[in-house]
Amino acid sequence: MPNFKIVSDFGMTGDQPQAADKLVAGLSKGFEHQTLLGVTGSGKTFTMANVVERVQRPTLVISHNKTLAAQLASEFKEFFPNNAVEYFVSYYDYYQPEAYIPRTDL
Question: Which pLDDT value is given to residue 93?
Fold first, then answer.
């Protein structure tokens, strides 16, 4: 697998470098869970792409809806044109096994 290398005409600005530094430091310390908060358009995806480039680890990005998942996949494909960026959508809401009983969900 080729190294993760961002292809972009832009660099991080504003709070993005500090956010990326803190996320990378958290990964180095073994933190299992971290959250990146920001308003729409603040560059969260670009910040995460920079974290991926810095840590050089395959990364799973999960979204709560299909529209955002498609947008994220598209942006990551642009940032990492030389790496595999895959997009998967679960159709669980359309298919439920016969043995599935919703009231047993926790």
Answer: 66
Task: Please identify which residue in the block is written with the tokens 């080729």.
Answer: 2
| Measured CA angle at 73 (ends 67, 90), to 5 deg | 60
* pLDDT confidence tier of residue 89, bands split at 50, 70 and 90: confident
What domains can be seen in the chain, in order of their start residue?
Answer: 16-32+39-104 (3.40.50.300)
Render the chain in DSSP notation, one character per residue. Answer: -PPP----S----TTHHHHHHHHHHHHHTT-S-------TTS-HHHHHHHHHHHHT-------SSHHHHHHHHHHHHHH-TTS--------TTT---TT--GGG--
pLDDT band at 100 (very low <50, low <70, confident <90, very high): low
